[in-house]
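Hey, I was hoping to borrow your eyes for a little while. A protein chain has come my way and I'm curious about its shape. Take your time with it, there's no hurry, and the full record follows here:
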Amino acid sequence: MKVFFQVKGPLIWLDEQGAPDGFFDVHNYIALCRDHYEKVGLGRDYIDRLFR
């Protein structure tokens, strides 16, 4: 099975009452990329080259 998710906006977690309880947005993805690029030796600032 192949799955492709296209996220357009933040993911927001809700508590039992339906109130927002957390989120994951583009800034979280960028932080994950920075950490990964640092780990593999490209450097944390490598991702800046990908932005226009």
The mean pLDDT is 92. The beta strands are 11-14, 20-24. The CA atoms of residues 32 and 52 lie 19 Å apart. The chain has one helix and two strands.
